[in-house]
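Annex B. Sample input.
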Amino acid sequence: MQINAALNAISGGNALKQAVGIALLSQMKDAQASQAAMMLQDFAAAQHPNLGKNLDIRV
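Annex B, continued. Sample output.
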C-alpha cells in the first residue's frame, strides 16, 4: 500500500476520505510493525549457536 495515497486522503476535506486514510495508515503501521517483529525473530533464530562463546585472539 502507498503511504502517500493515505496521507493525501487524510489531508482532503471529505470526512469519509479522512477516516479511510486514517484507517489505511493504521493498517500499514500495524503491518510494518509485524514485519519488523518477524524480521527480528528471524535474525535471532539465525544466529550461530556458539556465537559469542569463544574469543579468537591472535598475537
